[in-house]
Design goal:
By secondary structure, the protein is mostly helical. It is 46% helix and 8% strand. The protein has helices spanning 2-24, 45-54, 62-72, 91-100, 116-124, 138-144, 169-189, 200-213, 220-233, 240-247, 257-261, 284-291, 315-325, and strands spanning 35-39, 81-85, 106-109, 160-163, 300-303, 309-312. The chain is elongated.
Length: 331
C-alpha cells in the first residue's frame, strides 16, 4: 500500500513538474490590443500578479507564477514602471522584462515660446508624472533645483524629453534646466564679437524676446538684428510681448494703448534696454539668432498678418508698412 502511495506521489509530482515546465514557456493568450501593466512603488509580487489577472492573464496558477519567479531569481527584483504586454509573450519572458525594467518611455515636449505658467500647466496635466509642483512656488522650485534666488523664466530648454512613469515633475524640469544651461553656454561661447550684451543671462533674455516675436522661423536672425541695432543706438526695443508679460494675469488677449504707456519693469516702450528677466522659453534657434544676428540697417518691423514681417530701415518706411498691413491702407 505504501509503495502504491509513493508511486502515485511520484507520478503526481512528475505531472506537476511537467505542467510547471510547460507553463514557463506557454504563450499568453491576450486577444485584441496590447495591455499596459503598471508596477508601482510598494507593489509586491502578489500585487503584480493581481494586476495581471485584471488585465486578462488567466494562464497558470498563482503558485506556478511564484515558483517561476523564484527559480528565475527575480521575485524581489521587479522594477517600477509601465510595461507593454502583447499576445504571445511567455511568463518567463514577461518576468525577465519586469526584471530588466524594460518599461514604456513617454514623451513630454516643452514648446518654444512657452512661459513658466504654461509649462507648469502642461506638467500638471500629465498623469504619468508624479506631481509635486503644486506644493512649490517659483522660488521654492528653483531652490529644489539647486538655483536658489534665480528667476525661473526661460531656464528650461524647449525640446522633447523621454521619461518613464514615476518620474517627478521637478526631475523632468531639472533635465530641461541642465539642457538649457548647456545650450546657453554654447551660444554664449560662440557668439559674434561686439554684441551689446554683457552676460549669458542677457543673451537668454534677448533670445526669449526673439522667440516671442517670431512667427516665421527663417526671420529669427533678422528680428535679432533689429533688436541688437536698437540696443547699440540706445533706442527702446518697443516690443509688445514684453509688455504682455509685464501685465501678467491682467492680459486678456488684447493689448491697448494704455498698456503701452503703463510702466512696468517689462515695458520696453517706457524703459530702455532689456527687461530684467527672460519672458519665455527660447529654443536653440532663437539662442543662435541672438548670438548671430543678421547684419543690416533695419530698425523696425511689422507683421503682415501671416506670421511674416515687413522690415524697414526708417520710421517713414515703417509707418507706410503699418498703414498697409495693419490698417489696410496700401498705396
Amino acid at each position: 500500500m505504501l509503495a502504491l502511495f509513493l508511486l502515485a506521489t511520484v507520478a503526481v509530482g512528475g505531472w506537476l513538474w511537467q505542467r510547471y515546465e510547460g507553463f514557463a514557456d506557454t504563450p499568453l493568450a491576450l486577444a485584441g490590443s496590447e495591455r499596459i501593466l503598471t508596477v508601482e512603488r510598494g507593489d509586491g509580487f502578489t500585487d503584480i500578479l493581481g494586476k495581471l489577472r485584471e488585465l486578462g492573464v488567466d494562464e497558470g496558477h498563482d503558485l506556478e507564477w511564484k515558483l517561476l519567479a523564484q527559480e528565475m531569481g527575480v521575485l524581489s527584483r521587479l522594477q517600477v514602471g509601465d510595461y507593454s504586454i502583447r499576445h504571445g509573450i511567455t511568463p518567463s519572458q514577461l518576468l525577465r522584462k519586469l526584471e530588466r525594467g524594460d518599461v514604456i518611455h513617454y514623451r513630454f515636449t516643452i514648446v518654444e515660446g512657452w512661459n513658466l505658467r504654461e509649462l507648469r500647466a502642461a506638467l500638471a496635466a500629465d498623469e504619468r508624472v508624479v506631481q509635486t509642483l503644486h506644493e512649490l512656488d517659483d522660488a521654492a522650485l528653483m531652490k529644489a533645483l539647486g538655483r536658489d534666488g534665480l528667476h525661473p523664466e526661460g531656464r528650461f530648454l524647449p525640446e522633447t524629453y523621454h521619461y518613464t512613469r514615476g518620474m517627478s515633475d521637478v526631475d523632468l524640469l531639472r533635465r530641461a534646466m541642465l539642457a538649457m544651461d548647456k545650450a546657453l553656454a554654447e551660444a554664449w561661447e560662440g557668439r559674434e564679437d561686439g554684441l551689446p550684451i554683457e552676460t549669458p543671462d542677457e543673451l537668454l533674455t534677448l533670445a526669449s524676446i526673439i522667440e516671442k516675436e517670431t512667427g516665421k522661423a527663417s526671420e529669427r536672425p533678422e528680428i535679432a538684428g533689429v533688436f541688437v541695432r536698437r540696443l547699440r543706438l540706445g533706442m527702446r526695443l518697443q516690443t509688445d510681448p514684453t509688455v504682455i508679460y509685464g501685465m501678467g494675469s491682467a492680459y486678456d488677449g488684447n493689448i491697448r494703448r494704455r498698456d503701452l504707456t503703463t510702466d512696468t519693469p517689462y515695458n520696453t516702450y517706457t524703459r530702455g534696454g532689456l527687461p530684467p528677466t527672460p519672458i519665455a522659453m527660447p529654443g536653440r534657434a532663437a539662442l543662435e539668432a541672438a548670438a548671430h544676428p543678421l547684419p543690416g540697417n533695419t530698425l523696425y518691423f511689422v507683421s503682415r498678418g501671416d506670421g511674416s514681417h515687413v522690415f524697414s530701415a526708417s520710421l517713414a518706411e515703417h509707418n507706410r508698412a503699418v498703414a498697409c498691413h495693419q490698417l489696410k491702407r496700401c498705396r
